[in-house]
Amino acid sequence: MSAQAMEQAQQGPSSWKKIAGVTSLLIVVIVVFLVAFALPSINSEVKHIAVGLVAPEPLASAVIDGLDVASPDTFDVTIVESASAARALIEEREAFGAFVVTANGLTVETASAASYAVATALGAAGQQIGAAVDVPVTVDDVVPFSEADPRGVGLSAGALPIALGGWIAAVGILSAIHGTRQRLITAGVFAVVGGFALTAVLQFWLGTFTGNYWLTSLGAVLGIAATSFLVLGMQRMFKAAGIVMAAIILVLLGNPLSGLSSAPEILPEPWGAIGQLLPPGATGTLLRNTAFFDGAATTMPIIVLAIWFVFGLGLYLLAVARDRRRDPAAIE
């Protein structure tokens, strides 16, 4: 009989009190997960979205007033001089869209690749303004998703496995690979190979991504590396509690606050901003901006992921040094 079986036999069956306690705890965990995943989406709304406006005075003021009436507190309008300047704001991720008024009517420039929900709201607001002032309205999606995935479902469905895949890989590495150097090398190789492989699936098979494959893959590599080394470091430093803490950071908080299915800006404040400081949100933004916006506004997510990577690696090395001081003969 194994040691574990002997221990279970000595302990006897669990008491009903313990069964009730464990069951209650698991129910609480399920409810917390439900609330964490559902609440941000339920409370999401398009508010204070940055947009550009090209229109002469006093027409510009009339359009702004019309937007305030049609969609109160929805848009933060910046007046720009030309349609090209408005498009530059969109392509540089400084605005989600623009309203361009010309002699031929109103053109609503959107970027569904930035957020399909925001692009839809922009189009609806433009139609309301056009109806109010009796001018024709044209909606132009200047940065769309791919034709194969016009709503960007693959981004929200595929980017999260890229970010959370690092967590899954780290757990597998911890259970199957032994040795400090061996674990670090395995995590690094997985991040590189996995990042390029998963990006290839999203770009060449599912057709979601349309940008530079190599640059987008490097973003995926960084996202997987950040999560993998975070889990490795937290487990080595805090043991089983570290795995739980990493799951809270990456799954319980990082997943619902990433804003991948909509946009971080439409999540309740300040949760959208907080989500961008966690690996899933930073990875999603990095992939979105690299694949569809030629790398615009990628500095912040790169810095965030690099910090998480260094933090995880640092925790791991500190824990190794601590354990070797306690037991110099230990293998790892």
UniProtKB/TrEMBL annotation:
Signal peptide: none annotated. Keywords: Membrane, Transmembrane, Transmembrane helix. The chain crosses the membrane at residues 20-39, 153-177, 184-206, 212-233, 240-258, 296-318. The keyword Heme does not apply. This is ABC transporter permease. It comes from Microterricola gilva.
